[in-house]
Amino acid sequence: MKVKIKDFVPEHTFLCGQCFRWEKEPDGSFTGIANGQVVRIKSDGDDTFIEGITKEDYESFWERYLDIKRDYSVIKKAVNINETMHKSIQFGYGIRILRQEFFETLISFIISQRSSIPKIKSCVNKLCELCGDEIVFEGRTYYAFPTPEKVANLTEEDLRAIGVGYRAPYILKAAKAVLSGDIDASALEKADTSTAREKLLSLYGVGDKVCDCVLLFSLGKYDLFPSDVWIKRVMAEEFNSSDAKKSGEDEFGLYSGFAQQYLFYWRKYNNV
Questions:
Q1: Which pLDDT does position 51 carry in this prediction?
Q2: What is the band of 270 on the pLDDT scale with cuts at 50, 70, 90?
Q3: What CA–CA distance (Å, rounded) separates 16 from 94?
Q4: Mean pLDDT of the chain
Q5: DSSP 198-227
Q6: H or E element in which residue 108 lies
Q7: Which one of 119, 150, 176, 209 is the catalytic residue?
């Protein structure tokens, strides 16, 4: 199906560090797995082509997942406060913040701690192959992200075998907390950001950066400004800040998460 989407470039959106299950194909399209489906997405200007879904799938999941209804021109105007932001927005003008599934985002960012994007992708894919449901798309086999129940039934040895190392107990405790209802995505989404952060930070193995990424990339807490080495670097160099998270949230307020993504993508991939 074809959809009109302004301010959307798949490469910007899928390679900006917010997700780990999208791969670029030789023709420039991206193949990804979400909602138990494999889809292929390619854009030509404002026209976006999505293969592998029905109109009902699009309306029930993918429209929200791709954040299609949001007017990003308003956001860009709001965060374009100086030359650094202007350059960042120009460089990553097609970034949209995805509304990813909570459990997948939680486990993926627990895995992401002290790791590179290729390593994170490898571990996440191996976890899906280990206990996710098979999906066949265009003659190839893919794997859905596993349910909390399936992950909770694994052992630390199972998880260490796919390369997650010391994060194995963190993953098991997170899966069990979601399975039991102690960590509830719906409740976190309805809560204010401070309350949601406090609850998620109570989870073993979840620190500030993981917490903020999960809330931003799955539950729409856009007033958060996750801080990693790249963000600390750009905030120190361009904003003369020693506390990247606080400075970013003070500066950009309700649009902090969008500003963070523009800055991260520019600082990491523009070789500055």
A1: 96
A2: confident
A3: 10
A4: 96
A5: HHHHTSTT--HHHHHHHHHHHH--TT----
A6: helix 102-111
A7: 209
Q: Residue with structure tokens 């960590």?
A: 183
Contacts of 138 (CB under 8 A, 6+ apart): none
Reported pTM? 0.96
Residue 182 Cα distances to 109, 179, 203, angstroms: 19, 8, 10
DSSP of 165-187: GGGHHHHHHHHHHHHHTSS-HHH
CA 95 → CA 13, 29, 71, distances in Å?
4, 15, 12
CA gap 133, 128 in Å, rounded: 8
- Look up residue 217 and give its two tokens: 């990339």
Residues 6+ apart with CB under 8 A from 166: none
Phi/psi-derived region of residue 191, left when phi > 0, alpha when psi is between -120 and 50, beta in every other case: beta
What whole-number percentage of the chain has pLDDT above 90? 98
Please confirm, yes or no, whether 176 is among the known catalytic residues. no
**Which residue ranges form the domains of the chain, and what is each CATH number?**
2-91 (3.30.310.260), 102-219 (1.10.340.30)
